Amino acid sequence: MTSFEDVENLWEEIEEEDDIGQKRYLMNHVFDLLLEKTYRLTDSELPEPKHRVGSLQGEEGYLYKLSQDFLTSSSTREKEQKLEKMISYLEKKAE
What we know:
Elements (H helix, E strand, L loop, with lengths): L4 H12 L3 H22 L14 H4 L1 H12 L3 H19 L1
Helix pairs in contact: 1-2, 2-5, 4-5
């Protein structure tokens, strides 16, 4: 089972952060961690960073869509919502 403790710790920092730039930086870090966890959960080889999102398209369509939405959203709140959905989905998958 993959631990989500690191994601939970960063999520707490995000919720407490007032600086939008720092908040978005932390959100991008959480996003990277979630991508890594996705590949670990499926026992797939971790692609190079530039291919991690695109590689989801065939295997994990729902996460691919959430990733696209996260990356293209200009709203910090929308980005948080996409990350929350990704976390929830991966936690259920890890059970």
